[in-house]
Description:
Elements: H1 9-31, H2 44-65, H3 70-91, H4 93-100, H5 103-114, H6 132-147, H7 154-175, H8 187-208, H9 218-235, H10 240-260, H11 266-291, H12 296-316
Helix pairs in contact: 1-9, 1-10, 1-11, 2-6, 2-8, 2-10, 3-6, 3-11, 4-5, 6-8, 7-8, 9-10, 11-12
Amino acid sequence: MGDGPARLYGLDALRGIAAICVLGLHVHAIYGGFPDLFGKAYLAVDFFFMLSGYLMARTYGERLASGMSGLQFFRIRYRRLWPVMAVGGLVGAYYLWTATQNPWLFGVLFAANIMLVPVGFQQELFPLNVPAWSVFLELFVNAIHGFILARLRTGALVVIALCALAATVRFARDSGALDLGARPSSLVPGLFRAILSYSIGMMLFQRWRDGGAPHVSPLLAAVGFPALLVLPWALGIAHWAYDLAFVLFACPLLLAGGLALRHPSTLALALGSASFPLYAVHFAVLRQAQLMGIGAVGAVGLAIAVTALVTIWTQRKPRRSATANHSASLAFAKVAPEGHR
């Protein structure tokens, strides 16, 4: 994507599928009333971190090596992610007001969260728009990428990934799952979680370069992704080891499957274009719909309608060539804090 040799339509499709799974997770989190089929959909956040590491290395690796500063890279990322997240924040403003009922507290939380700065309130880092917790972590690892990781050789990246893995295993074992990063108490564990998947994504690009990935059927990846998220519910699996195995084995194979689809696909392009808008607005829309007394089906329809409008807006916005087609860098699929399910 971007300045790469070709648009990666398979990855477009996978991130769209992942965002839809997240929607299913959060409909249950907010409304309940049906089986929690996608209770493990928080694992899609790890796929998105890994995808982001791959794509950022693919698109910006040479530029960072040729003189682009870490600050320039961070500014590009922030400008790319902030506008759509701000829309979700505006949708969530009424919910935040009902939760605070205090003009001063509302103003502080709104001002911080709309700028993607975490402020803990009622066990949420981003009560204005919950999905922003993982976008914050995305930007954090983007900064680490621009200032540090881009200057390292593969061996050093391996060491960093192993250190992040050790910390992530410890935190996942203590909590019983890899569902880390959304609450104030799990922000630091979430950072290690993000570094782990992001650094693996960078290393996969260094090894594969779009052409050296193992062959995985794109159809198998598209079907297997949601299946792997539903499988724990079907089999009653709740162990943190499943989460870790998903990150270390399933996510790289899913990336390989996405890379295998090279021919243009209108459906894949549509899924990719709508994935970040869906991610950014759906939780706030669902909460607002619940406050208005709208049922789950109507709330989903409203979320899809708002997503469509935001997607049209993002596609019409003028884009610089340096940042075109980077909605694939969606960092975070699981956007509800722990305990919301």
